[in-house]
Write a structure and sequence with these properties.
- The two termini are 18 Å apart.
- The chain is 30% helix and 33% strand.
- The strands form 2 sheets. The protein has a 4-stranded antiparallel beta sheet.
- It is globular.
- Helix 1 runs antiparallel to helix 3.
- Strand 4 and strand 5 form a beta hairpin.
- The protein has 3 helices and 8 strands, in the order αββββββαββα.
- It has one domain: Jelly Rolls, CATH 2.60.120.10.
Length: 117
């Protein structure tokens, strides 16, 4: 996702990120909410689950490990959160707000796409 950024843009993104700490069991994002941040996992393990229509219990989808990112779909498509992410262990995350994401990351990816088009 960040591969389309030039060094100056990447520096802006890194400086715009804020550190977030969550304890085991805390919910980071909730399915259906408006997306306000993209998150990158620095440490800890997070569980991703989704409540599908017709089910009464959420379905486990995946575990997020350090180095992985989530939350970008709500920012890319201005859509509600597609799943719930919960900390399985204490976790350190880096959050990137919607405004910075849209101005830097999304714009850069569109420019790269147009270039190859």
């Amino acid at each position: 996702m960040f591969s389309a950024l030039n060094p100056a843009e990447l520096d802006i993104v890194l400086n715009a990120m804020s550190q977030v700490t969550r304890k085991a069991g805390e919910i980071i994002i909730t399915q259906g909410e408006d997306g306000d941040n993209l998150y990158v996992v620095e440490s800890g393990v997070l569980s991703c689950s989704k409540l599908f229509k017709g089910n009464s219990e959420p379905t486990f989808l995946k575990e997020y490990q350090p180095g992985e990112a989530f939350g970008e779909l709500a920012l890319l498509y201005n859509a509600p959160r597609a799943a719930t992410i919960t900390a399985k262990t204490d976790a350190e995350l880096w959050a990137l707000d919607r405004r910075t994401f849209n101005f830097i990351v999304k714009d850069s990816a569109l420019k790269k796409h147009d270039k190859y088009d």
